[in-house]
Amino acid sequence: MHPILSLRYYDRDQIAHSHDHAQLVFGLRGTLDFEMDGHGSLVQRHRLAVVPPTTHHTCESALGGHCLILDVPDESWLRDNLGAHLDSGRRLIEHATTTELAPAQMQLVDWLAASPINDPVIARQGAALLLASLSDAQPGAVPSHLPLAQLDAHIDRHAGHPLQVADLAGLAGLSVARFHSRFLAETGQTPMDYVRQHRLQLALRLLRDTSLAIGAIAERVGYASQSAFTAALVREYGATPRHLRREARDKSR
Q1: How far apart are CA 226 and CA 213, in angstroms?
Q2: Within a domain: 102
Q3: Residue 192: CA atoms inside 13 Å, Cβ hemisphere, count?
Q4: 47 and 129, same structural domain?
Q5: Whose CA is closest to 23, among 151, 168, 130?
Q6: Nearest-angstrom CA–CA distance, 67 and 197
Q7: What function is annotated for this protein (predicted)?
Q8: Does 133 share its domain with 154?
Q9: Do 59 and 114 reside in the same domain of the chain?
């Protein structure tokens, strides 16, 4: 039998399996690419993935990911340890979801990660505390608005690399289909149109505020060639990179 709480490190080697017990995956450091029943998400610091029993899931981490794992024990353990939180605890582990933790939950996860969780008393009581706090918090609840500031920061950090809608949906704790419809409703754009526009806005700032070569800027914002980058800027702003840079310098004099 698995220990109730464990610290695990994930790397490029993909894990693909299912198990009879529910599992909670708490991000500590790095990023874990997580997929449950075909829906992709990201588990990062202070995010939680809930894996219901028998749910097929895959995970891997290109740069390495550290997580705290709670392998939920059987029904009798839940009855003995959750008390008044039993029903909400059962509901918690019924649905696959990825969500942000509240500050108090973050502190508890960090404390447990730094504690001797191989001690059966700490493991049992720590797991019960986590489940009780998560049960009452309804972690699967969807926020009323998308976290656009967080999404913008993620796009900026990864502008030079391929970005998938699944990456952004994971940050919002939504499935790809639900994220796409919510995004379109809130912004009037598809997620990938938004990413493209955000990359070009970043490129415009780099053209105006730095002396980086145009080819280097194109690469930094995800364009494989300078010609494709130039064509995108002309479509968006009606001017070439050199013209936009010269225009900005003329205005600053």
Answers
A1: 10
A2: yes
A3: 7
A4: yes
A5: 130
A6: 34
A7: Regulatory protein of the TOL plasmid xyl operons. XylS activates the xylXYZLTEGFJQKIH operon required for the degradation of toluene, m-xylene and p-xylene.
A8: no
A9: yes
Residues 128 and 155 in one domain: no
Looking at every residue in the chain, the average pLDDT score rounds to 87
DSSP class of residue 85?
A: G
Residue 246 has φ and ψ, to the nearest 5°, of -65, -40
Query: Which among 142, 112, 146 has a CA at the least distance from the CA of 6?
Result: 112
Q: What is the pLDDT of residues 20-59, one digit of tens each?
A: 999 999 999 998 888 887 777 788 888 899 999 999 999 9
Identity of the residue numbered 95: H
Cα 182 to the chain's mean position, in Å?
Answer: 17
Q: Does residue 33 lie in a domain region?
A: yes
142 in a domain, yes or no? no
Among 156, 55, 41, which residue's Cα sits nearest to residue 100?
41
- Quick one: the chain helix, strand, coil %, rounded to 5? 50, 20, 30
* Interhelix angle 191-209/176-187, nearest 10 degrees: 60
- Residue 38 region by backbone torsions, left for phi larger than 0, else alpha for psi between -120 and 50, else beta: left
CB 105 within 8 A of CB 112: no
| pTM of structure | 0.56
Q: Are 205 and 245 in contact (CB under 8 A)?
A: no
Q: How high is the pLDDT of residue 142? A: 46
Task: Confirm whether 32 is domain-assigned.
Answer: yes
